Amino acid sequence: MRLSRYFLPVLKETPADAQIVSHRYMLRAGMIRQQAAGIYSWLPLGYKVLKRIEQIVHEEQQRAGHIPLLMPTLQPASLWQESGRFDAYGPEMLRIRDRHDRDMLYGPTNEEMITDIFRGHVASYRDLPLTLYHIQWKFRDEIRPRFGVMRGREFYMKDGYNFDLTKEDALHAYNRHLVTYLRTYERMGLQAIPMRADSGPIGGDDTHEFLVLAETGESEVFYDAAVTDIRLGARDIDYDDKAQCQAVMEEFTELYARTDETHDAEEFDRIPEERRRSARGIEVGQIFYFGTKYSEAMGATVATPEGERVPVHMGSHGIGVSRLVGAIIEASHDDKGIIWPEGVTPFHVGIVNLKQGDAEADKACEDLYAAMEAAGLEPLYDDRSERAGAKFATMDLIGLPWRITVGPRGLKNGVVELTSRRSGESEELAPEAAIARLIEIYAGKL
Amino acid sequence: MRLSRYFLPVLKETPADAQIVSHRYMLRAGMIRQQAAGIYSWLPLGYKVLKRIEQIVHEEQQRAGHIPLLMPTLQPASLWQESGRFDAYGPEMLRIRDRHDRDMLYGPTNEEMITDIFRGHVASYRDLPLTLYHIQWKFRDEIRPRFGVMRGREFYMKDGYNFDLTKEDALHAYNRHLVTYLRTYERMGLQAIPMRADSGPIGGDDTHEFLVLAETGESEVFYDAAVTDIRLGARDIDYDDKAQCQAVMEEFTELYARTDETHDAEEFDRIPEERRRSARGIEVGQIFYFGTKYSEAMGATVATPEGERVPVHMGSHGIGVSRLVGAIIEASHDDKGIIWPEGVTPFHVGIVNLKQGDAEADKACEDLYAAMEAAGLEPLYDDRSERAGAKFATMDLIGLPWRITVGPRGLKNGVVELTSRRSGESEELAPEAAIARLIEIYAGKL
């Protein structure tokens, strides 16, 4: 993309009402625009990041055999009356009446609807196990929306639902989701720690929240420092292998790590003192096993091999897709702006032309641009007639992890400059060598 | 995808309340499930088609330099009060009140919001021309929703908005959109004819609707038969070339083609009688030029090169993404089911194993499956223990354009059968040759 033809409305001033860094930088980098309290437009740069995150979530869910579908944003109240949650949910549920005076709502989550789909179409144990998920806009009418997309009202979420014949199978689905989530966050350059949590209005016994440590987190968390040393890494996972998924789950959850809701001071004190940590965390996902809570209430049963009809065991599993954009920024920025991890960056590399209009510099930039596109990289070329300082400031603010700087002086020596946004380190390279380096950096990430 | 692990709830019976063929087949093929009047869940197969269509729309918009962003589904009433449409819109607008008693609405379209984004961030002619678009869920509270996704309440639409300094530039944007739409529909295997139409609540003078001819169409249309012979085809388009876009527009719109709203019997009668046609059509898109209607009302101005502030010239341009799923089926089916065009098919090819459990047949199917995935094709492998007739009926119903049938008899002679869903013709081929044929068929469509 050429910046002269893009729509990237960066702001020079820091918006007064933005209290946390991700909100400030998303506004300043022209990623979002507030349209009402807690309701945002995703401007082109923000939209690109949102889509990259969504794509990673899709890939990791489908890798585990989970099947995508799409439920609508509006739901009939009748489904929620069946589960008893229509009255229980409180004022955060946005209730709507249509022109025929029918009660509807903007879905805050989809346990009821997915259970309705299941009971309408599945009748036998032979169709299990089954995990369906969607990524859809949801609404929670927060009384005081704040922190930009971190605590908005209209938000984008992946929610998945497993249907299993037995509790054992459903716990495998729980573990399987835990593994997919670990991989999902790691691909985004995030460390999200599974912590034992409270199930809230979803219900159920088993639940873990995934928390990214950050000063601005809304939750207080307590953990054994050793938990931050564990990585999933590139290990090969067979998602049908119950023992393997269980082992990963145990590895990641056996050390103490809890939110304040489930914190147990006595147990915490048994951790060696030098490893005891309390901090703040941002919730970026949660998994639940809630057994037959919804299937019993709504009559979602299957025939067993013996011909008996039993309610299915279920769980639900959510990742906050729009919230992750903010969480990644909270975890990865400096005082000049955002620093995108390679896995989610909106553009792979920025090209800064130090002397726009200089025939040689323009040609070198055009050649780099074409070669990058041919290699499957997405560059953002700052082709405006601005001074170098302004171009650098924009690139630093929007946080592309790599920048190539092209100027007449370097070109005389046959080199351009490749700069890491994270370390600030620069390297002089022939243009072809710079592209080769970028291809290497993004291997497996395109 | 292996059918045994997929969620494809096909129905044997024809649903009684579905009046048109696309609605019937979408229900029977397990593509959608109604959740409330005019509100559907997109089950996995339907979701895949929806996403293929969305992807084509994105590609063709971005090819023309149009920039994607994403506006929220809910909008504050205040924006619509500025344009005067909050009161004018009528009961099809779903009005909502949030917990703080603020008036909101579920967006049926986005002229106001995009104008608000524009005025908030753009101030100079130097940032023009600019075309922004999004693909987002919308709501229109139809009094009597029917025909499945063809006239639903919650629907998925691409809507794009151009901002230009002059009327001439805005008319180029209009022509450019017309060309992108022609290409978009042709890639989906559809002929959609641009017809002069009425602008309705959007406003403006220039507007064309794109109509697919089909008996079940909601509009009566009148046209010169010669208009159905024109194709855009593979011609190379430079979307910055005003004369070229204008020429394409004229080529496609100079012959008589109008909806009943703008029909002129006298002019129609001047067409040679043997070319006069009246028929029914399904609207799948519409483009508008409406000048400064919204920019004046909402103060969206830019500075000209002379320093004067003038309201921008705008147009809006919509494609009914969810509606297209139905329209394609209306245009492409037979009495056994859907016939997907290659450009939008949910899976590229079906594999039918005639003797599941037979070691040789199973292995041949697995090998085909792996080879197809390696070639970038997405196969649907019917690996269920069903009789051949049931497997064929499912494949015919869901409408994959190509089927490979594998059975012990053919394998003895080293062949499988490749069948075209459209023609019904079969060909016996070595497995490798069948894959080579499919790769050829889908060249440029993956």
From TrEMBL, chains A, B:
Keywords: Aminoacyl-tRNA synthetase, ATP-binding, Cytoplasm, Ligase, Nucleotide-binding, Protein biosynthesis. The keyword Heme does not apply. GO terms for molecular function: ATP binding; proline-tRNA ligase activity. Residues 38-341 form the Aminoacyl-transfer RNA synthetases class-II family profile domain. SUPFAM superfamilies: Class II aaRS ABD-related, Class II aaRS and biotin synthetases. InterPro entries: aa-tRNA-synt_IIb, aa-tRNA-synth_II, aa-tRNA-synth_II/BPL/LPL, Anticodon-bd, Anticodon-bd_dom_sf, Pro-tRNA-ligase_IIa, Pro-tRNA-synth_IIa_bac-type, Pro-tRNA_synthetase. It catalyses: tRNA(Pro) + L-proline + ATP = L-prolyl-tRNA(Pro) + AMP + diphosphate. It is an enzyme of class 6 (ligase). Pfam families: HGTP_anticodon, tRNA-synt_2b. The keyword Aminoacyl-tRNA synthetase applies. CDD domains: ProRS_anticodon_short (cd00861), ProRS_core_prok (cd00779). GO terms for cellular component: cytosol. It is found in: Cytoplasm. GO terms for biological process: prolyl-tRNA aminoacylation. Transmembrane segments: none annotated. Its EC number is 6.1.1.15. HAMAP family: Pro_tRNA_synth_type2 (MF_01570). Catalyzes the attachment of proline to tRNA(Pro) in a two-step reaction: proline is first activated by ATP to form Pro-AMP and then transferred to the acceptor end of tRNA(Pro). PANTHER family: MITOCHONDRIAL RIBOSOME PROTEIN L39/PROLYL-TRNA LIGASE FAMILY MEMBER, PROLINE--TRNA LIGASE. NCBIfam families: PRK12325.1 (NF008979), proS_fam_II (TIGR00409). Belongs to the class-II aminoacyl-tRNA synthetase family. ProS type 2 subfamily. Homodimer. This is Proline--tRNA ligase. It comes from Pacificitalea manganoxidans. The gene is proS.
